[in-house]
Amino acid sequence: MARAAITNDPYPFIPYRPARYPEREMLQRGREFSALLDRRRSVRAFSDEAVPRECIELAIKCANTAPSGAHLQPWKFAVIGDAETKHRIRVAAEVEEQENYEGGRLPPDWRAALAPLRTSSDKGYLDVVPWIVVCFAEKYIVTPEGERRKTYYVNESAGIACGFFIAALHHMGLSTLTHTPNPMAFLTEICQRPATERPYILFPVGFAAADAEVPDLQRKPLDEAMVEVPMPRGEGHGSD
Ligand code: IYR
Predict the structure, then answer these.
(1) What is the reported pTM?
(2) Can you tell me whether residue 79 is helix, strand or coil?
(3) How close is the Cα of 51 to the center of ligand 1, in Å?
């Protein structure tokens, strides 16, 4: 497997010359990318329309470009397209979520935070979507020689990979939901993954239903997302 070679061998260093654009074009590209991402919404109402498997493969290829701790790429994306396995996942997710919503496992503050989103223990969309993709985070990787290697920054790495995955789906006109049916241990068994991996995020993937609705959420404004760090007192000047 290529990765084992990568993790043991020193790398040659090769030139890297990323594309450069005139300033106007940089801004134009930034605005367009921002507008594209701003049109993405988490979806809970899906169409059962088929989605080519290659779209899923491409989204995982995009995820697989994510930076990762020591380049150990501690993720696996399990792909499920058959109705029986999707249904098993739905049933198991609903068992956990019924305990959360109806059984009182969700603390009151959490329930209150979710109320405006109208989420519930009904995860019917897991039967409807053409694909379910489960990202597993690898606590260890196993080399072809059977040697266990610890991975680093697993949450950060898998989280960034999932972000790329979500963006790639959206770019293709597909929708998903960042779903973490809690606890998620049942996914290890259903997806037949080893104990070195931990279920991280479950993604139903498909086209949004023709009549899908989403809450009219607003993104927080830039001046709340971005803060200026004050210059140290009595020191230097800005760069312009
Ligand atoms: N996992 C539950 C609850 C849930 C929690 C958060 I935080 C959300 O943003 C949405 C749902 C569920 O899937 O319903």
Answers:
(1) 0.93
(2) strand
(3) 25
